[in-house]
Design a protein that fits this description.
Strand order of the largest sheet: 1-2
Number of helices: 2
Radius of gyration: 18 Å
Distance between the termini: 46 Å
Strand content: 15-25%
Number of strands: 6
Helix content: 25-40%
Largest sheet: 2 strands, antiparallel
Order of helices and strands: EEHEEEEH
Shape: elongated
Structural class: alpha+beta
């Protein structure tokens, strides 16, 4: 592998693990990796309901968006996120957390 920056190239280096950027398996592996974490969030039954469907999170490769309609459950969802992030070796950064009322 090499990194290209403009017309400059880094020294070659070997990559022993990971999934290539843009690889067709990347979204599938990401979904499999976070499936248990997503189920944990759904199991707390807190969030916004659209008819009979619970919506309390959307997960993207670099963002997790959580939805909660009441203050009562507001801390429970981040607690589950934090516990799950430790198990899945993800980082949650409170400096990028935004609350909307």
């Amino acid at each position: 592998m090499q990194i290209t920056w403009g017309k400059d190239f880094s020294e070659p280096f070997y990559v022993s693990n990971g999934v290539r950027q843009g690889g067709v398996l990347r979204p599938y592996l990401f979904a499999v990796y976070l499936d248990d974490f997503s189920n944990e969030l759904n199991n707390i039954k807190a969030g916004c309901y659209i008819g009979e469907v619970l919506l309390n999170h959307l997960i993207f490769p670099d963002d997790i968006c959580v939805f909660c309609p009441s203050v009562r459950w507001l801390q429970r969802i981040p607690d589950v996120c934090q516990a799950g992030s430790m198990q899945n070796c993800m980082g949650l950064f409170s400096t990028t957390t935004k609350l909307f009322a």
